[in-house]
């Protein structure tokens, strides 16, 4: 009986042995590598770039896109201190100029992505504020703006106050935020009576109302320059993404959110 069991077991053992051997001889299927691409971008571009990401990766499946959003000045400091980034998109010319002067930008890659408007917003149910001159009213206690040293929107707001001779009236009322999205959040919550943000930020919220738009002559041009960083480890992929952002598909997304795109 034991002899019969051994004869039955032997072929099964041989089959298993040959199957294992065959599997070992089959070369493994290589895992397709993806090219990582890190984009440091102004906080006001968050919605646009998150919409762009799946569109871009439909035709660039080999690229893994990641974003680092923040105030343009803070992103500049990170880059200067050696933080990784392949592409930089600022909400102000000054930050990109700094990198350009340092020789940190890949030659020929700097271009303007879009323009924007600066608007005065109030909580949706608020009444009484109708213009920038309303900021002088005693009932206006808190005016939210970006920190002008690091947030371009705060720099533009400061220029508006100077242009309209409102600096002395508004200075005691100013509440500073780390980026323009924080300004929006402070006004949405009612923790500020008014705030100055980009038109595109105001348009994504149903909790605030635009009461005035700053004339272009009140401040420096609100421009979003973008460029590939010279130290990028994936220069070709970074250049391709910047080129895509200048194309019709990306421009459609920018327009959807209210950005003004160059022809």
List the helices and strands and how they pair.
Layout: H1 2-25, E1 35-42, H2 46-59, E2 63-70, H3 72-80, E3 87-89, H4 93-101, E4 111-115, E5 118-123, E6 143-146, H5 152-163, H6 167-170, E7 174-177, H7 180-188, E8 194-198, H8 199-203, E9 208-213, E10 223-228, H9 235-245, H10 248-256
Parallel strand pairs: 1-2, 1-3, 6-7, 6-8
Antiparallel strand pairs: 3-10, 4-10, 5-8, 5-9
Helix pairs in contact: 2-10, 3-4
Q: Could you please describe the fold and organization of this structure?
A:
The chain is of the alpha/beta class and 263 residues long. The radius of gyration is 27 Å and the shape is elongated. The longest helix is centred in the first third of the chain and has 24 residues, at 2-25. Helix content is 40%, strand content 21%. It has two domains: 35-115 and 224-256, Periplasmic binding protein-like II (D-Maltodextrin-Binding Protein, domain 2), CATH 3.40.190.10; 118-218, D-Maltodextrin-Binding Protein, domain 2 (3-Layer(aba) Sandwich), CATH 3.40.190.10. The chain contains ten helices and ten strands. Residues 6-10 have low confidence and may be disordered. It has helices at residues 2-25, 46-59, 72-80, 93-101, 152-163, 167-170, 180-188, 199-203, 235-245, 248-256, and strands at 35-42, 63-70, 87-89, 111-115, 118-123, 143-146, 174-177, 194-198, 208-213, 223-228. α2 links the parallel β1 and β2 (63-70).
């Amino acid at each position: 009986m034991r002899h019969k069991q051994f004869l039955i077991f032997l072929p099964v053992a041989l089959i298993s042995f040959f199957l294992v051997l065959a599997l070992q001889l089959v070369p493994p299927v290589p895992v397709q590598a993806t090219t990582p691409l890190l984009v440091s971008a102004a906080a006001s571009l968050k919605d646009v770039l998150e919409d762009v990401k799946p569109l871009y990766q439909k035709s660039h499946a080999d690229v893994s896109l990641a974003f680092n959003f923040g105030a343009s000045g803070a992103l500049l400091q990170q880059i200067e201190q050696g933080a990784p980034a392949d592409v930089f998109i600022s909400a102000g010319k000054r930050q990109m100029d700094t990198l350009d002067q340092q020789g940190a930008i890949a030659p020929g890659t700097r271009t303007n992505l879009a323009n924007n408007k600066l608007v005065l917003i109030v909580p949706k149910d608020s009444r009484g504020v109708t213009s920038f001159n309303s900021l002088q009213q005693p009932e206006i206690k808190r005016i939210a703006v970006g920190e002008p040293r690091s947030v371009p929107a705060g720099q533009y707001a400061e220029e508006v106050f100077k242009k309209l001779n409102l600096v002395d009236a508004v200075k005691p009322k100013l509440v500073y935020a780390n980026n323009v999205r924080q300004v929006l959040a402070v006004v949405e919550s009612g923790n500020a009576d008014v705030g100055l943000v980009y038109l595109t930020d105001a348009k994504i919220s149903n909790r605030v109302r635009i009461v005035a738009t700053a004339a272009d002559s009140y401040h420096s041009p609100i421009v979003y320059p973008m460029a590939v960083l010279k130290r990028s480890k994936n220069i070709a992929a970074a250049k391709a993404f910047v080129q895509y952002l200048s194309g019709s598909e990306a421009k459609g997304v920018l327009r959807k959110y209210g950005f003004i795109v160059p022809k």
